[in-house]
Amino acid sequence: MADTAAILVCAGNASRMQGINKILMPLGDSNVVGHSMMRFEACPDISDIIVVTKPEFFDAIRVTARALSITKLRDVTEGGETRQQSVMQGLRLVPKEAAYIAIHDGARPLVRPEHIAAVIKDARVFGGATLGVPVKDTIKAVDDGLITDTPPRASLWITQTPQVFRKRLYFEAVDFALEHGLDFTDDCQLVEAIGGKVYMTPGDYSNIKITTPEDRAIAEVLL
Q: Domain residues for 179?
């Protein structure tokens, strides 16, 4: 059932990309955001795709979508100063008939359509779900250069995207954040703040976020 609207967040400043715009960076036979759009286009549960980015990239993204025959692109809109504000801009364009919202980092071009579907399936049960993978390394908590704790690795996961939520639940969380002046960098935190339950859906390690120039080289190999 195609009842989930996807918001692709692509409004970052690329501060770790040496000034290079990462979402329009060439990747394979397209660019980064093009591959992200293709993954959501291929998922039957997705009804609409909304891209949130800087105004100077609107035309390039629409040209990319046409070149890839993306039919689900609903609109491209301007982002805000923070991730949360950018997602809120995308929320304005979510159609009334959508029952779920999938929020995805536009710089994660290798997410698998079947994993998108799996997160949506889990969100239908729990109200919210996110893709993730178990951590491989031992994690240390550090304060002023000194190790203060070693959390048990078995309970630690790396959070990825998409993060999918029942639309009514997500809007309730947004209202709470606005009322209390809260701004989160992770959408799960937003829902957790109102007591919402979020399921961790197992993904895979290839769903990387392109953050540095080295990440693009890795993405090319994985692609």
A: 4-222
Which amino acid is it at 99?
A: A
CA angle, 18 then 22 then 23, to 5° = 160
Q: What six digits make up the tokens of 112?
A: 């698998």
Q: CB-based contacts of 52: which residues, under 8 Å, 6+ apart?
A: 7, 8, 9, 10, 11, 76, 77, 78, 79, 86, 87, 89, 90
State the CB neighbour count (10 A cutoff) for residue 150. 10
- List C-alpha distances in Å: 136 to 152, 154, 157, 205, 219: 12, 9, 9, 10, 19
Q: Tokens representing 134? A: 């178990």
Place of tokens 């996807």: 6
User: What domain count does the chain have?
Assistant: 1
Contact (Cβ atoms closer than 8 angstroms) between residue 64 and residue 30: yes
Distance of alpha carbon 94 from alpha carbon 50, whole angstroms: 8
Instruction: Return the ∠ at Cα 185 (arms to 145 and 101), rounded to 5°.
Output: 150
Q: What is the pLDDT of residues 7-47, one digit of tens each?
A: 999 986 655 555 568 899 999 999 999 999 999 999 999 99
Assigned token pair, 125: 């049960």
Residue closest to 18 by CA, chosen among 176, 210, 152, 220? 210
SS3 5: strand
